[in-house]
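Internal tracking record. Fields below are filled automatically when a chain is submitted to the structure queue. Please do not edit lines marked as system-generated. If the sequence contains nonstandard residues, flag them in the REMARKS field before resubmitting.
Queue: standard
Priority: normal
Entity type: single polypeptide chain
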Amino acid sequence: SHPAQGRNQLAQTFLDSDADKLFFLDSDIVFDPASIVKLAHYPVDFVGGCYRLKQPLEQYPIGWLDRPALQADKYGLLDVASVPGGFVCLSRNVFSTMLKAYPNRSFYHFGHKMNAFYQMQYANGTLQGEDSGFCLDWTNAGGKVYLDPEIALTHLNFMPTRYVGHIGNWLKSRNKEVGNGTEEKISPQMAISRDK
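SYSTEM-GENERATED OUTPUT FOLLOWS
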């Protein structure tokens, strides 16, 4: 089955429970367990870490907002357009907001009523993955997506190859390269500073 269907089933199980937050953790991610607790304690509705793409060149599947620079808030979080869906913490408010914003997405799966929170969709000239599409729907409904750049995550393929990453360090190194003139300027300028 498609990952979107699995995420929708887990979202419905969450909504049928009395839990406050839902944490999506994909099976090919290696992490420090303390990172889960860290994300769960942020006073925001939608926050995630980011792992590398499975390729030798270090890159990250983040959707950046159209801003000249990155500015961390008082918690050290970055406001972004999208994060990948394999290491995210979501509050109940995310789903209640989306149910109100998109009321005509219910369907039945083996006799169980569910909602298409996650789906692949065509937007901005590309076919979005289910996680990017979810972020787009959430932000269009007025929500914000946050990234904790200080979480180290490893992305595995089935060779197995370990793609070890730390997006915060990567952003800082890119900013130094831009400042030294050794790389073309990137947009947004990947400078991380923290609100006082």
